[in-house]
Design goal:
InterPro entries: DUF4232 (IPR025326). The chain has 199 residues and is mainly beta. The protein is 12% helix and 31% strand. It has a domain of 137 residues: Immunoglobulin-like, CATH 2.60.40.
Length: 199
């Protein structure tokens, strides 16, 4: 009987001295390393920066037209029956414009009627784009003779004298009006003209 009592007391003592973790209410399940709440999540990949758009190319200058140009003839040197002048145009528009090529030209009398004009293009200088900023100028060289040719009279004007002229910019259809007043143009009204260049 004493042995049974002693065995029961020993069993109670062993139960009371269980695992210290269980006594404290702590789990004995091992925790995988790195799975705790203090672990920092990996940062998301940085967004790819958007491609920078290429700088816009300035638009090419528009064509110079009679709407923005003012024209005049500036006399040059003369001698041995030859006359020289320049057809000068000024850009009165708000933006640069481009001239490329030859002007048209028609001589007129005081009443606005056509006077014989035979315009001949020369290659010096030849056609090349000329950007004309606002208030800037471009010019074309003019050359003609005052010596009568063929059946033209020699005892008076070889041709009717022009008072005015109409000039048409390259690739345009509208004319510019300008004063002439530089005497008759002999040789049937033959005038040599160069392409426009910066003046």
């Amino acid at each position: 009987m004493r042995r049974l009592v002693a065995f029961g007391a020993l069993a109670v003592a062993l139960t009371a001295c269980g695992n210290p973790d269980q006594q404290a209410g702590r789990s004995t399940v091992p925790v995988a390393p790195g799975s705790g709440s203090g672990t920092t999540a990996a940062a998301p990949p940085a967004p790819t920066p958007a491609s920078t758009p290429a700088a816009s190319t300035p638009q090419a200058s528009g064509r110079c037209t009679a709407a923005v140009l003012a024209a005049e003839v500036q006399p040059g040197d003369s001698g041995a029956g030859n006359r020289y002048a320049k057809l000068v145009v000024t850009n009165n528009g708000p933006a640069p414009c481009t001239l490329s090529g030859y002007s048209g030209l028609q001589l007129l009398d005081a009443s606005g009627q056509p006077v014989p004009t035979d315009l001949q293009r020369t290659p010096d200088p030849g056609p090349a784009p000329v950007v004309v900023p606002p208030k800037a100028r471009a010019a074309a060289n003019l050359h003609w003779t005052v010596v009568p040719t063929d059946a033209e009279p020699v005892d008076g004007p070889c041709q009717p004298e022009a008072a005015r002229a109409r000039a048409i910019p390259p690739d345009d259809t509208q004319p510019m009006s300008l004063e002439w007043g530089l005497g008759p143009v002999c040789g049937g009204g033959r005038i040599e003209i160069s392409a426009f260049y910066a003046a």
